[in-house]
Amino acid sequence: MYSDFSNVDDEFTIRPALIDAAVNRHLPNSGFGIAEIAGEQERRRRRLKGMTSRLHKTWSGLDIGRRGGACRMEWARLQAFLATEILPVFQAERGPLFLIKLSDKRWRVPFEEATSAVFISPAREVHKAIYSLRVKGYRPCCLTSYALTGVIEFDDEDNDDDYSGELFEPRAYILIGGVPNENILSAVFGMDGACLHAPFKIVPLPKSDAGKVLGYATKMRAETWWDFRSLGEKYRMWVEMNPQMELAWLRIMAETPITDLVEFEGFAKPLKLQFGLEKMAMLLNALIETGKG
Fold first, then answer.
1. How many domains does the chain have?
2. How much is the mean pLDDT over the chain?
3. Which of 149, 154, 164, 176 falls 20 to 30 Å from 267 in CA-CA distance?
4. Is residue 107 part of a domain?
């Protein structure tokens, strides 16, 4: 049945399964679900008293303007944008694709002290690396998503307990093409041994996995990782973020515009401007139409 998506709120109410299927078909790891997003949005609005203007109240609000990174509806819109505008570009890339996961222990701060400025350091490193690639004659095409993760470190080696406290660590997830091999990426990101404090991973990707990576990199959940060492072995496990830490996380994300948490580099079109202005109705229509082929 044809729809011009003129009333976005009605579309999300009447045809949620169709929209869910369309997004998840393009971005399999996105966990996109309209009912879950709406419920989480309402819970966040209740927690962020005094900051609710940073979160949309209805889906139709997405066509009025951008909000903060705590807004689940904004991340849903971003995933729709990635599925329609970004994924086809990476799938058509002639050279190899890579996923870079970038973080640095020196960027960590106690969660009580953290502000939206926590994203400055990873953004600086990404910008410096992309500039270096261009100077070297490459033409990188990349999507960068910035995230904030809770981290707790514990080391019980030699019965000498070492507890880091509850920290926030900013991270960057970069899907990049236009660079022939990962050795070049390791060098320009300063990860070739010169920066020992910067854990990172560069993963070569088949183009068929581009949608999975875009979905994974834009889930934007409040997560805390326990990093601990015991009997000579390193372990990592996920634990639920405690309420005080989650509230701090929500406030930081709400203060940070969604447009500061995603960057588009090397694309033929001015995607930052397009991302800021494109109507949700247009994105929904494109999603449904591409599923008909």
1. 1
2. 87
3. 149
4. yes
191 vs 39: which has the higher pLDDT: 39
Listed residue (161, 143, 145) closest to 153, CA to CA: 161
2 in a structural domain: no
| Residue 247 lies in domain | 8-290
Kindly state the tokens that stand for 62.
């997405």
Residue 226 belongs to some domain of the structure: yes
CA-based radius of gyration for the chain? 20
Could you report the per-residue pLDDT of 222-238, keeping only the tens digit for each?
Answer: 888 887 777 677 777 88
Whether 1 maps to a domain, the answer reads: no
Q: What is the pLDDT of residues 172-200, one digit of tens each?
A: 999 999 999 999 998 888 755 444 445 57
Compute CA 8 distance to the chain's CA centroid, rounded to the nearest angstrom: 24
**CA distance between the termini of the chain:** 16
Q: How far is CA 210 from CA 98, 142, 184, 264, in A?
A: 9, 12, 20, 15
124, with CB counted inside 10 A (0-12, 13-18, 19+), is exposed
The 10 Å Cβ neighbour count of residue 246 is: 18
CB count in 10 Å sphere of residue 49:
7
